[in-house]
Amino acid sequence: MSQWSTRDDRVIALPSGRLIRGRGLAAHPELSPDPDFGLYLLADEVRGVPWDHTWVEWTDFGLPVDPAAAREELTAAWQRATYERVEIACLGGLGRTGTALACLAVLDGLTPGAAVDLVRAEYDGRAIETAEQVDFVSDFAR
User: pLDDT for 82-140, tens place per residue?
Assistant: First the structure.
C-alpha cells in the first residue's frame, strides 16, 4: 500500500513514525491524496466513501457510544497505519478526531498528557475540546 508524506495537509507523526491524517469532513471536505482506510467518528454512519472505512458512533462534543468498540477500531487503525494511509475524521476535525489521535499516540507509547500535548502542538491547538474527552484519553491508557 502507501504512506502519507509529512508534507500532506493535516498529517501528524506519532513517535513510532506512523503518519495519520486527521480531518473534519465539513471543515476539510477535499484533501489529497485519498486515504487507503478511514475511521469516521460520527453520530450517524458515513455514506458514499469510496475507500475502505469503518464508523464509530460518537456524538459531537461527546464520547463513543461503545467505548470497547471504539478501542478496537482505534487499535486496528493504529496497526494499519504502519503500511497504509489512515485517516481519522469527524465533522469539525477537532474534538472527536483530536481525541482519537491522542488515543493513537497512547497506543504508540506516550502518556495521556504527552499524547494530548502532541496532538495540540502538531495537529491543532483546539483539538480535544472537552474535559470528558481528555478523561477518555486517560482512561484509554488503562
Answer: 999 999 999 999 999 999 999 999 999 999 999 999 999 999 999 999 999 999 999 99
Rounded to the nearest 5 percent, the helix, strand and coil shares of the chain are 35, 20, 45
CA distance 61 to 78: 23
DSSP state string for 44-87: S------SEEEEEEB-TTS-BSSHHHHHHHHHHHHHHTTTS-EE
Could you tell me the pTM of the whole model?
A: 0.96
The domains of the chain are located at: 11-140
Cell of 43: 453520530
* CATH number of 11-140, picked from 3.40.50.970, 3.40.50.11440, 3.90.190.10, 3.40.50.2300: 3.90.190.10
